[in-house]
């Protein structure tokens, strides 16, 4: 823990030296995920899709508006004194075939689809954010390990410089250790740069708009052992995974669209009522008293277009397509779950093997060879080889812990209980 705090202080010092960020704040995993779910701009934009679908559902309840038409006619009053005429007509289209019901059903299924898409987006965002958090922890651990390795080889180089000044070793041996120290410093700087890039990515996921501030997470990359049960994961995958529910809902949307297509093939009736008035005709040839008329009627289209069933066949094909996609999604999810579960078991064993004194043995061997070298009983090449082996084991173990965390995050998507927290 002390080494982690020291390394964090070194990295914060680097940020201060750069002069880019004037504010730093440490952040736990739970605080980070809360910030992501509340402020991530892509998620905020995605939530509007549900609002749009809800508005479309409200629009589906609309009924056709009635139409009011008025006409005025001059029958030649100035020349023939035939008078004027006025007509007012009110019409209203009555939809038949269950069109309104089909529209509501389709809009409802579209809204449910939008909700599931949002749920899937949240799941993917959670995975992306958790992965980014784990990457920061991994890079931080690697920086700490490489910093310790650099300090060790730097102390060897400084000791060799003194031994060379006393004539105990050759110039070549002193230059060799100094070269290794410079190389270790370059690798450390590269890893620190990678760590800072991971921090910036983390702040982007949080939607942090303050350009002078930087959030620095803390946590443990090495998770406690998790216990996932295959049958439980499989059952949850085929019942509650957003991808599977989304595929199921896609079939329902296609079926609702097919029902609407069939309903649209039914005729619509237009009901009309009319009131008319003709003024008094004062023409001496055929004088006529003023008259008022009342009429009613029905209009219907002649659906010759129903002979063309292309739209109906397209809707039927869309249903079959979505059903095929549902089957493919189910097979893909099961295959993905099998791969992740097997990887989880393998990484669990690999991590346990590393933790069975492998790292401690590598550290003891490196320290022992350095002591032998400083006593003159070993060569610089043996020190370099031991240091390289120690670094490889440390980096490999860190990568295994990172991959184990990732596969646990993937299995959490198929688990009723979230087990991963850093």
Explain the layout of strands and helices.
Layout: H1 2-18, E1 23-27, H2 29-39, H3 41-60, E2 67-74, H4 77-80, E3 84-95, H5 99-165, H6 171-205, E4 213-217, H7 230-240, H8 242-264, E5 268-278, E6 291-299, H9 310-354, H10 358-374, H11 380-412
Helix pairs in contact: 1-5, 2-5, 3-5, 5-6, 5-8, 5-11, 7-9, 8-9, 9-11, 10-11
Give a short overview.
This protein is α+β, with helices and mostly antiparallel strands. It is 67% helix and 12% strand. The two termini are 15 Å apart.
Q: How would you describe this protein?
A:
The protein is an alpha+beta fold and 422 residues long. The chain has a single domain, classed as Outer membrane efflux proteins (OEP). The chain is built from 11 helices and 6 strands. The protein has helices at 2-18, 29-39, 41-60, 77-80, 99-165, 171-205, 230-240, 242-264, 310-354, 358-374, 380-412; strands spanning 23-27, 67-74, 84-95, 213-217, 268-278, 291-299. The strands form 2 sheets. Strands 2-3-5-6 form a 4-stranded antiparallel beta sheet, with no helix packed on it. The chain is elongated.
Give average pLDDT, whole number: 86
Number of H/I helices:
11
Strand content: 5-15%
Q: Write the element-wise H/E pattern from the N-terminal end onward.
A: HEHHEHEHHEHHEEHHH
Secondary structure category: alpha+beta
Total DSSP E strands:
6
Shape: elongated
- Binned, the helix content reads 55-70%
Describe this protein with a few key phrases.
422 residues; alpha+beta; Outer membrane efflux proteins (OEP); two-stranded parallel sheet; 11 helices; disordered N terminus
């Amino acid at each position: 823990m002390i080494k982690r705090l020291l390394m964090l202080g070194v990295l914060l010092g680097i940020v201060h030296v750069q002069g880019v960020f004037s504010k730093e704040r440490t952040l736990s995993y739970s605080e980070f995920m809360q910030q992501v779910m509340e402020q991530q701009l892509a998620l905020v934009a995605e939530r509007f899709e549900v609002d749009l679908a809800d508005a479309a559902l409200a629009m589906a309840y609309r009924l056709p508006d009635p139409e009011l038409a008025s006409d005025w006619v001059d029958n030649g009053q100035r020349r023939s004194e035939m008078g004027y005429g006025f007509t007012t007509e009110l019409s209203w289209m009555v939809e038949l075939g269950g069109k309104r019901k089909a529209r509501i059903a389709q809009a409802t299924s579209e809204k449910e689809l939008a909700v599931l898409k949002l749920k899937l987006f949240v799941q993917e965002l959670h995975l992306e954010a958790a992965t980014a958090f784990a990457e920061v922890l991994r890079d931080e651990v690697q920086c700490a390990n490489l910093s310790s390795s650099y300090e060790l080889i730097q102390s060897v180089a400084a000791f060799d410089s003194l031994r060379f000044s006393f004539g105990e070793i050759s110039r070549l041996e002193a230059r060799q250790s100094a070269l290794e120290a410079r190389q270790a410093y370059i690798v450390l700087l590269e890893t620190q740069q990678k760590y800072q890039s991971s921090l910036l990515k983390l702040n982007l996921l949080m939607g942090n708009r303050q350009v002078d501030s930087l959030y620095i997470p803390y946590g443990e990359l090495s998770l406690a052992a998790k216990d996932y049960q295959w049958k439980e994961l499989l059952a949850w995958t085929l019942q509650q995974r957003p991808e599977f529910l989304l595929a199921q809902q896609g079939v329902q949307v296609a079926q609702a669209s097919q029902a609407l297509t069939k309903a649209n093939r039914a005729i619509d009736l237009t009901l009309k009522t009319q009131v008319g008035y003709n003024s008094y005709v004062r023409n001496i040839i055929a004088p006529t008293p003023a008259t008022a008329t009342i009429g009613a009627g029905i209009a219907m289209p002649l659906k010759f277009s129903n002979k063309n069933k292309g739209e109906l066949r397209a809707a039927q094909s869309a249903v079959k397509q979505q059903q095929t996609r549902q089957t493919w999604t189910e097979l893909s999810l099961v295959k993905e779950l099998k791969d992740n579960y097997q990887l989880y078991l393998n990484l669990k064993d690999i991590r346990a093997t590393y933790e069975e004194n492998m790292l401690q043995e590598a550290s003891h061997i490196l320290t022992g060879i350095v002591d032998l070298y400083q006593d003159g009983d070993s060569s610089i090449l043996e020190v370099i080889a031991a240091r390289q082996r120690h670094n490889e084991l440390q980096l490999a173990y860190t990568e295994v812990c990172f991959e184990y965390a990732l596969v646990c995050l993937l299995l959490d998507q198929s688990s009723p209980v979230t087990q991963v927290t850093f």
